[in-house]
Fold:
Amino acid sequence: MVNPQSSGNRRERQIERRTAGAVAALVVMLAAAAAVAPAFQSTHPLTGRRIANVMGSGGADWLERPERETEENVEGALNAIGLKPGMTVAEVGAGTGYVALRMGKRVGPNGKVYANDLQPEMLDLLRSNAIKAGVTNVETVLGYATDPKLPAAQIDLIILVDVYHEFSQPQKMLQGIRAALKPDGRLVQLEYRKEDPAVPILPDHKMSVAQAKTEVEAEGFKLDSVIETLPRQHILIFTKAAARGAAAGK
Structure:
């Protein structure tokens, strides 16, 4: 005869072993995830600048607001940075594509635009806007907080429009951007002027020229020029600095 109590005990021990095994597996998975998860920063170590929160897809309407051209003169910014037909360019943090689609029209059918964003919802909106605008030379790219996922050494110009200040891992993103640029490629950064208290933007979403220069040059770039023709933003143009030892190809 089977002892019901001993049978129940065996079942309990089996359940305990399975539970213990599941807990151990979960601990291992969490440890592995912690090992690869990026250590998000709250401030930049070189400048002490507080890193701003990322605008979610709920802010898409603000990116497409009718008054944006008057406030920012986006077309004037694109005129200033020397886009030419046939160029391969990219926008990191492209959002709804307000800038990327205008770049697509300027580089023409023989050119290409990589439109990067962290948020799939933004890229969905961008693709929809591209169809409405009849722009067919823009390729969307879903990136990471530590990697823009752009093709290596293929891009003539990468633009960051009011987005660098939101990078949670700015050093790694700049390294990825540098790797994507051709040897003579340029990085263009637009940021609201921190130096001007009259610019109606939250302080964390502004940057000074000095902050941008310090942070970006530390990752293998050289500030080539600053253009101050826009109503509210700096245009900062960086080139790739000469590689230094182990930093070559960075």
In short: The longest strand covers residues 181-193.
